[in-house]
Each structure stands twice: as structure tokens, then as C-alpha cells.
From TrEMBL:
Protein name, as recorded: alkaline phosphatase
Cofactor binding annotation: Binds 1 Mg(2+) ion. Binds 2 Zn(2+) ions.
PANTHER family xrefs: ALKALINE PHOSPHATASE
EC number: 3.1.3.1
Entry cofactors: Mg(2+); Zn(2+)
Family per record: Belongs to the alkaline phosphatase family.
UniProt cross-references to Pfam families, sorted A to Z: Alk_phosphatase
Sequence positions that bind Mg(2+): 17, 117, 276
Binding site for Zn(2+): 17, 285, 326-327, 436
GO molecular function per UniProt: alkaline phosphatase activity; metal ion binding
Keywords: Magnesium, Metal-binding, Phosphoprotein, Zinc
């Protein structure tokens, strides 16, 4: 194989939030088959990025991978939920010579535009929950929430393309609908500000061409603009299987990525684009493996769409394309299912409890995923299960009675529809939700200097690699490296 050692004119990084190796494998089997591949799995160079178990959250990953990138030309970063916020840190472009940020950033997400992954592009906060005024602590009067930093401060207000959800964070007293309800678990602005209006006023003062869009039809009819703000939902997008695909619904990740590329492609000074598939991780946290796989399919489709467009425009050979994740989750692919059986189906009965198990389970999970029970044969007593010690504790009249062990049983998934989107895969450890995992994440690459991602690396390596391949940052230029090797 001949290595492409040219300087990359374009950089595309696809990041799946929570898209660990198990999610990729399961999605391949789910959407293709065991003997086929996802589109990005055919990239010629494959490596691994090490994720530290204690800090395997999305925001730390973005900061780790993409921090302090200089002199960007054309960069596109696709971030899939589960792929990670650490990757986004490289979108902070810093010029030592001018002592200020250079703003080539553009980002697209199907999560909130204030969520931790994409917020690492433009915001500096002590807590990623500070997405709007309502979640700010009383003693933080000297601090700005993430939404205000996006609209009011540099670099946020200079970002050319912003697309995603989060209307309720940007506009006070936002109203919900049946298809797009208010998210009671997310920040809901109540300070009276309309940051979308403030964004438009800023662009008018600067005499630039801008557009605000709120649905698929408005996005599709959009022609050239200098600045684009697309806010399509109150919180995160609906999952792909629930999304309104009509012209008045939320756009697909592919549609947003394509429009972002169309706008950026007209910029002679280059571009830096982040595209996050932000719902893979959310589905995993909720314990719904099928939804997570569907969201990974959507990210894969966006990757294929953008690569096809670049190939038709004869720009693919100048474009470095990277696919990776910020972290994995605790989903497990169990052994011994029949070949070509459904990845969402049953494997084999277990001799201990005579119940089947599914091919996909979680190591950790919330109450819906923790599916164990014991027969209370002693009357109206509360039964607390302790499978670790095979003992049942019976609680009555505020007294704890230690009893001989009852057999602790697991619910038989064969009695449920494991192919349903809302099925909760079983988990072995009870937590508040499915947790992240410290597993290494895969990285796939094609294009100029892609061979340098082959092997196992720290996540911070990605930042230095991006700088080297694009002649960005305080590292040796590609041309200097080639001269030293070949001259």
C-alpha cells in the first residue's frame, strides 16, 4: 500500500459519543451481517486510542484529543455520541502569533448545541451542567452559562455553522409540543433572554449574510450564507426511529452534515467542521441497545454521504478522514449465539436459572435493566436481594432478619420482545443508569498521513497528529518532515 504523505487540505473527524468497539461490532451485525462491514470500517488504517477509566466522560475526551490547534485550513470533525467530546478540543484553534483564537469552527450535532461534547469547542465552565441560567449556582454571578458563551462571547459568536437542538436553553420560556416536548431533565432558561434574537442582532451589526432555520424544509431551501444557526428541537433530537421525517420535522444527521459541507465548501479560507452523533450515548445510558445501534447506523450514513460528496468533487485525496469515539459504554456482546441470528435476540439457556440470556447485555444498568427477583414465601415482607452473597434479607417492622438464602432468579428474556426499541437489556450491576466504560476506542483513518494513526495511542496523540497532518499547531511541519526524511 502506498502512503499518502501530502499535507491534508481538509480534515474530517467522525466522533460517535459512546460508540465503543462493542457498539460498532453490534451495529455491523445489526445493520449488515457478521460477514459485512460498516462504511467506515473499510478505511485502510485502524488503531486504538486509550481512554482512562476514571475520566472516560465525553467532555474530557474532546479536550484531550483536539486542544490547541493552530492555523487550521479545512477540517471537518464528525462526533458521534459515544465517540466523544475529547475529540472536539482540537477545534479550539489558537494562534500564538496573533495571541487570539482563529475561528474556523463549525459544528453539527443531534444533541443540544450546549451539550458537553460540542460545548468544549467554545465554552469554559466549571460544570458541564451549566447549560443555561437555570442551572447556574447562586454564587456564580461572575460566570456565564454555556448558552450565553455560545452567543455572546468569542469564539462562540464567530462560529460559522451551528446546528443541533437546545431551544429551551437559548430562549426563555420556550414552549413544547407533542413531537417536541420540553425536556424536564435538561436546563430550561427563565432569565428572559432570547439568545437566538441576540445572535441575529450581532450578525446584522456586522453586516454579514445569515440565516436561522428550525426544520428540514427551511434547511433544504437554504442557499449560501456566511453564518447559519439551526435549532431544531427544544432539547436533544428525537431518536432516529421516532424522528418526524416530513419537511417540518427535525433533519437527519446526514442532511445537516451535507448542508454544513455545502456552506463551508464555498469558503476559500478553508473550514473546520464538527459533526456529532450525540444520541448513541444517550440511548446506552437509558439501557436501550437497539436505539443505540440505530443511532450508530445514522452516523455511519452521514459518514458515507459526506465521503461520497467529497469523492464526486475530487477532494477526497486531499482530505484526511478520521472516525473515532470519546469513550465506550458497559454494553457487552455475549458468546454462543447461533451464526446469523439477530444481535438483539436470545443466545442460550443458562443451566443455573434455566433462563435464556440475550446476546447483548450491560455490565451496569438502571432499575429497568436490573431484572432479578426472589420468591417471597414468608408473607408480606419486603425482599432485598443480595446476589453477591446468595442471601436474602427480609425487612419487617423496621427489623432486619437474616434468613437462609432463597434462590435468586433472573427474568427470562424469552418472555419479552427483545427486538423492541424500548426493551431494556439486562444488567448485572444496579446503578442509576448504564455507565461509561474504560475500554480503548477504535480510530479509523483514510487520506493524507492516515497511516500515522495505525497502532495504539494516547487520546492526546490525536491532537498532535492533526497538527502534523494539516500543518496546524506548534509541531514540525509536514514539509519539514519530508525534507528531513527524503533529502
Amino acid at each position: 500500500m502506498l502512503y499518502n504523505v501530502d499535507e491534508a487540505q481538509n480534515l474530517i473527524i467522525f466522533i460517535g459519543d459512546g460508540m465503543g468497539p462493542e457498539t460498532i461490532t453490534a451495529t455491523r451485525i445489526y445493520s449488515k451481517s457478521e460477514d459485512k462491514y460498516l462504511f467506515f470500517e473499510r478505511f485502510p488504517f485502524v488503531g486504538k486510542l486509550k481512554v482512562m477509566g476514571e475520566i472516560c466522560g465525553g467532555r474530557t475526551a474532546a479536550d484531550t484529543m483536539l486542544y490547541n490547534v493552530d492555523e487550521a485550513q479545512n477540517l471537518i470533525i464528525f462526533i458521534g455520541d459515544g465517540m466523544g467530546p475529547e475529540t472536539i478540543t482540537a477545534t479550539r484553534i489558537y494562534s500564538k502569533s496573533e495571541d487570539k483564537y482563529l475561528f474556523f469552527e463549525r459544528f453539527v450535532t443531534n444533541a443540544r448545541v450546549t451539550s458537553e461534547t460540542v460545548a468544549s469547542i467554545y465554552a469554559h465552565v466549571a460544570n458541564t451542567k451549566w447549560e443555561c441560567d437555570a442551572f447556574m449556582p447562586n454564587k456564580s454571578t461572575m460566570c456565564k452559562d454555556i448558552a450565553r458563551q455560545l452567543i455572546e462571547d468569542v469564539p462562540g459568536k464567530n462560529i460559522k455553522v451551528i446546528m443541533g437542538g437546545g431551544m429551551q436553553c437559548l430562549k426563555s420560556d420556550a414552549s413544547g409540543s407533542f413531537d417536541d416536548p420540553i425536556d424536564k431533565n435538561a436546563c430550561y432558561s427563565v432569565d428572559g433572554r432570547d439568545l437566538i434574537r441576540d445572535w441575529t442582532l450581532d450578525k446584522e451589526k456586522r453586516h454579514v449574510n445569515y440565516a436561522v432555520v428550525t426544520n428540514t424544509w427551511e434547511l433544504q431551501k437554504l442557499s449560501h450564507v456566511d453564518y447559519l444557526l439551526g435549532i431544531f428541537s427544544n432539547s436533544n433530537f428525537n431518536y432516529e426511529y421516532q424522528r418526524d421525517t416530513s419537511p417540518y420535522g427535525m433533519p437527519s444527521l446526514s442532511a445537516m452534515a451535507e448542508k454544513a459541507l455545502e456552506i463551508l465548501d464555498s469558503n476559500p479560507n478553508g473550514f473546520f467542521l464538527v459533526v456529532e452523533g450525540g444520541l448513541i450515548n444517550q440511548a446506552h445510558h437509558e439501557g436501550h441497545a437497539k436505539i443505540a445501534l440505530e443511532e450508530t447506523v445514522a452516523l455511519n450514513a452521514a459518514i458515507e454521504k459526506i465521503v461520497t460528496i467529497l469523492e464526486e468533487a475530487e477532494k477526497l485525496k486531499d482530505t484526511l478522514i478520521i472516525v473515532t469515539a470519546d469513550h465506550a459504554t458497559s454494553m457487552v456482546i455475549n458468546g454462543y449465539p447461533h451464526r446469523h441470528s439477530s444481535i438483539l435476540g436470545l443466545s442460550q439457556p443458562v443451566g443455573y436459572d434455566n433462563a435464556n440470556y440475550t446476546t447483548l447485555t450491560y455490565a451496569t444498568g438502571g432499575p429497568h435493566n436490573y431484572q432479578f427477583y426472589a420468591d417471597n414465601s414468608m408473607g408480606n415482607l419486603s425482599v432485598l436481594l443480595n446476589p453477591m452473597f446468595n442471601r436474602t434479607y427480609l425487612v419487617a417492622e423496621n427489623k432486619t432478619i437474616h434468613c437462609p438464602a432463597q434462590k435468586i432468579l433472573r427474568m427470562d428474556p424469552s418472555k419479552q420482545d427483545t427486538e423492541d426499541y424500548t426493551y431494556y437489556q439486562q444488567a448485572g450491576i444496579l446503578t442509576d443508569q448504564v455507565t461509561h466504560a474504560g475500554t480503548d476506542v477504535n480510530v479509523y483513518a483514510i487520506g493524507p498521513m492516515a497511516h500515522l494513526l495505525h497502532g495504539t495511542h494516547e487520546q492526546t496523540y490525536l491532537y498532535y497528529f492533526i497538527g502534523f497532518a494539516t500543518n496546524v499547531g506548534p509541531i514540525k511541519k509536514v514539509t519539514d518532515y519530508l525534507d528531513s526524511v527524503f533529502l
